[in-house]
Design goal:
Largest sheet of chain B: 4 strands, antiparallel
Helix content of chain B: 10-25%
CATH topology of chain B: Neuraminidase
Shape of chain B: globular
Number of strands of chain B: 12
Strand order of the largest sheet of chain B: 2-3-4-5
Helix content of chain A: 10-25%
Number of helices of chain B: 2
Structural class of chain A: mainly beta
Order of helices and strands of chain B: HEHEEEEEEEEEEE
Order of helices and strands of chain A: HEEEEEEEEEEEEH
CATH architecture of chain A: 6 Propeller
Distance between the termini of chain B: 72 Å
Shape of chain A: globular
Largest sheet of chain A: 4 strands, antiparallel
Number of helices of chain A: 2
Strand order of the largest sheet of chain A: 2-3-4-5
Oligomer: heterodimer
CATH architecture of chain B: 6 Propeller
Strand content of chain B: over 45%
CATH superfamily of chain B: TolB, C-terminal domain
Distance between the termini of chain A: 32 Å
Chain lengths: 174, 162
């Protein structure tokens, strides 16, 4: 059908196809914000739609969530204080956002459910400090890297009785 | 008597406190296997039902993948090579792709491992920078990488082309 189109029509069709393909891909390149601000510890949602990162906010490492296509910052209910924040991790759709926060003199693993607004906390028994936290895409498993007695250790936790699965039809059709 | 009462009260308080956070539980058999299998583990990344870590085996760190459901180790042919130092990694949700940052000599590279093919390819960072931390999305279509460039930390998003 496109063979019958004049050159200008073909160019227009190509331009439209290119535009549609470009729109289906997330933003590529450096995450800009107009400021020469340090950005660290990237985490992507399973579907690639959202990016969590740590920015310097008045010298305090603070969690930020962005929509990758629009670049817009998504407000978070529970991460405006208790800095320094570290080690963000997202579930498939970005419904759940895990990170380590400071509460008193302790580092604490937390998960914000962005759908219900609930904050889940994971107190660790004994002198064990969380260093990194990772959430599985379906939000059913949590991995925590700990510093314990001078060694790195990874422990995993079952969240099936705590969080709803962040199920994805797209993923299972792969 | 007083001491045992105090002990009993402490036990009740501890139990109640634990119960208020009690809806998550350690996957003990996998955690025990992790302790037994290496001197230390760090840099965890989770797919659905899969865990990768950097495991310290006799002083050498290797990328190790474990099936969380049965604790079995999954082979990663061609991934762990001598004279390299892995800094950070991230797996796709089905565990077929691992994006990782590796130091070889003076070079720090961002790489992509395809498990079903056992191949590694380099992902270019443009403009150039030194990668430190990487995240891959669940479907393995994009990576976000923390890069040192012009004296500050930046985050680049890179589309993975097949």
């Amino acid at each position: 059908m496109t063979n019958d189109l004049p050159f200008r029509g073909k160019a227009l069709v190509s331009f439209l196809i290119f535009g549609l393909v470009s729109c289906s891909l997330p933003l590529e390149g450096s995450i800009g914000d107009g400021f020469l601000q340090n950005k660290q510890e990237p985490a992507l949602s399973g579907n690639g739609g959202k990016l969590a990162l740590i920015i310097d906010q008045l010298g305090r490492p603070t969690l930020q969530l962005r929509d990758l296509k629009s670049g817009q910052i998504i407000p978070l209910r529970h991460f405006s204080r208790n800095q320094p924040h570290s080690s963000p991790s997202l579930s498939w759709s970005g419904r759940y956002l895990a990170a380590i926060i400071q509460r008193g003199n302790r580092r604490l693993v937390t998960i914000e459910d962005r759908l219900t607004g609930k904050l889940h906390t994971f107190p660790l028994i004994g002198e064990r400090n969380p260093i990194r936290v990772r959430l599985s895409p379906d939000a059913q498993t949590l991995a925590i890297q700990l510093a314990h007695q001078g060694k790195w250790k990874v422990e995993i936790f079952d969240l099936t009785k705590m969080l709803e699965s962040d199920f994805s039809q797209e993923e299972f059709s792969q | 008597m007083i001491i045992s009462n105090l002990f009993l009260k402490s036990l009740i308080i501890l139990t109640l406190t634990s119960c208020s956070h009690g809806s998550f539980r350690a996957i003990s058999f996998v955690n025990s296997l992790l302790v037994q299998s290496a001197a230390s583990h760090r840099e965890p990344s989770l797919g659905n039902g899969l865990l990768v870590t950097l495991a310290n085996k006799k002083g050498r760190e290797v990328i190790e993948m474990i099936d969380v459901k049965n604790g079995k180790r999954i082979a990663l042919p061609g991934l762990n090579s001598a004279n390299t130092h892995t800094i950070n990694m991230s797996i796709s949700s089905n565990g077929q792709l691992i994006a990782f940052i590796r130091q070889r000599g003076e070079n720090t590279e961002l790489l992509l491992y395809r498990r079903n093919q056992g191949t590694i390819r380099k992902l270019d960072i443009i403009p150039k920078g030194v990668p430190k931390q990487v995240a891959i999305d669940g479907l393995g279509r994009i990576v976000a990488v923390q890069v040192s460039r012009n004296g500050r930390w930046d985050i680049d998003v890179i589309n993975i082309k097949n």
